[in-house]
Amino acid sequence: MSRYRTVIVGTDGSASSMQAVGRAGAVAAQENAKLIVASAHFHHAEKGGWSRPPSPDQVSDRRAEDALGREGYRMHGDAGVYEILREARDCAWAAGARDIEERAVVGPPVDALITLAKDVKADLLVVGDVGLDSVAGRLLGSVPADIARKAKIDILIVHTAG
Questions:
Q1: Are 148 and 126 contacting, i.e. CB atoms less than 8 angstroms apart?
Q2: How far is Cα 81 from Cα 24, in angstroms, rounded to an integer?
Q3: pLDDT tens-digit map of 88-115
Q4: Does residue 29 have a pLDDT over 70?
Q5: Sign of torsion over alpha carbons 117, 127, 58, 81
Q6: CA distances from 89 to 44, 52, 156, 162 (A)
Q7: Among 28, 29, 52, 105, which has the highest number of CB atoms less than 10 A from its own CB?
Q8: Contact 82, 56 (CB under 8 A)
């Protein structure tokens, strides 16, 4: 097995995504790898196209909420993206990771994480399994399933349910 040098983990601030962060922190520690904790956020500009939100406040994907109802994912929990990243950094540190970078990435989660992985030449992408076994996830797709289909690097999907 090849050694991982750069590991990325996506988080939306939920408890299940923090479980994935902890697992990514442990893998990064074991491999002596750099860990990038990333949280995707986006804001749809009125005249089309995606743009950075004016502040790091909570931004939700209203289209996902409408389509998925209670199964819709939260873009980054109940707090600002930078607070989530600090919490994720602390979680990864507690799991043993020492070289940790925080990244707020703009765009839908799948696209943002795939692009980040390419940009930093990551070896491993870690995500939680939320949505994989849901009806909405099977019908509309889920972040972990879409990542697994699109990523050209190793993927670790962390089982986060009970």
A1: no
A2: 19
A3: 999 999 999 999 999 999 899 899 999 9
A4: yes
A5: negative
A6: 28, 22, 18, 23
A7: 28
A8: yes
